[in-house]
Amino acid sequence: MRSSSLSLTIAATSLLLLAAIPAHAQASRTWVSGVGDDANPCSRTAPCKTFAGAISKTALNGEINCLDPGGFGAVTITKSITIDCHEVFASILNSGTNGINIPFNSFAATDVRKTVRLRNLNINGIATGLLGIRITGGSPITGGTVIIEDCLIDGNFAGNSSGLFDERTAGGQLFISNTTVRNTGFNGIVIAPGGGSVAGARIDAAFDNLRLENVGLGVAALNNVRLTISRSVIAGNNNTGIVASGALAQTEVNASNNVISSNATGVLN
Known about the structure:
This protein has helices spanning 2-20, 51-55, and strands spanning 27-32, 58-66, 70-71, 75-76, 81-84, 90-93, 100-103, 115-119, 122-124, 131-136, 145-149, 152-156, 162-166, 170-184, 187-191, 201-213, 217-222, 225-230, 233-235, 240-245, 252-256, 259-261, 265-268. By secondary structure, it is mainly β. Strand 1, helix 2 (51-55) and strand 2 form a beta-alpha-beta unit. Mean pLDDT is 90; it is low at 1-23.
C-alpha cells in the first residue's frame, strides 16, 4: 500500500511539472525558409515558411532571419521585433492587400521598446497591392519607433495605394534609409498623424538615401510632422515631389542635398 501511494504521488507531481512547461517556448531568434513549414518551431534546422508563422514563435524584442531566398508572405506585427534578411533575397507579395501592418494599438502595455525594425525586404504589390507598409495606433499605446533599411516597395496600384502610410494618432518615430519606393498609383510615403482628417501627436521622421520614382505624390508630411530628408532622389513622379501641410497643426520639413526633378511640382507648402 505504501508503495502504491508513493507511485501515485510521483505521477501527480510529474503531471504538474508537465503542465508548467509551455508547449512552444518562444525563441529570441527564429528562421524562415522557402522550403520551411509553419508547423515547425522556426529553428535554424526546422524553419518556418512565412513571417506570419514565425512571428508567433519569436520572443518580444527577438529577430526573424531568412535562411534562403523566398517569398514569405504578408505579415501583421504586434510586438517589438526585427525582421532582417540581409544578404538573402526576401520577398512579400501583397496582391490585393497590405504587405506589412504595424498596429501599435495591438502591442502589449508591457512592451516597453515598441520598436519594429525591417531590413532587406522586397515588398511587391504586383499591380494590385494597397499599401506596402501601414502604421497605425494611438491611445492607450503612445509613441513607437519604426526603422526601415535597405528595402524596396514596388507595385501598389489598387485603391488609395501608397508605398508607406503612417497614420498614428499618438505620435512616434519613423526612420528610413537606403530604400526605394516606386510604381504606386497614388502616394510614395505619407505621414499623416490622425489619418489627415485630425491632427494627432507629432511624428518625427528622418529619411536618408531614399529614392521615390514613378509614384503619384512623392512625400507628404501632413498635420504635426517634423521630417528631415537628406541625400535622396525624388524624381519622375506624377504629382508633387514633397508636400508639407500644417492645416491642422504645425509641420516642419528640412531637406538638404537632395535631387528633386521631373515631378509635376517640386515642393509644395
